[in-house]
Design a protein that fits this description.
By secondary structure, the protein is mainly alpha-helical. Helix content is 64%, strand content 10%. The radius of gyration is 27 Å and the shape is rod-shaped.
Amino acid sequence: MSSHPFIVQRSPARPSNKTGRTSLTEEVELPPQLQEQLGRLQQLQQTLQAVMTQKQQLEIEASETDKAMAELDKVTDQTPVYKSVGSLLIKSERTALLAELKERKELLGTRITVLGRQEERTKERVKELQEKLQEKLRPSASAN
């Protein structure tokens, strides 16, 4: 197998049993344009993975925020509540914490929506580029 990421190695030439055709005997180096497109595809796939990971992390944070809000709804304003700040717990007002969590939840929702759109656009671009590459690779693979 070749160490170059954009070189396809073919098996040694052997006549086919029935057709007498041979397969490619040497490595086929992809043209620079295809190498560039493959590089872009890899970048897009990495971007997609990063966007999906970030979106998932924000969804987890939004879920935790919902749980915290639900717990605060169970207690009265007279119940002492604390906010975690770094390694400290600071006594806070229940209503202030609820307002802060609600604002955080809205911000998370907006960011999740934006990342969802970015994810869909990136998926579409990946799909389009994959199709273009497959189309360009088909003739070169079947020409020999």
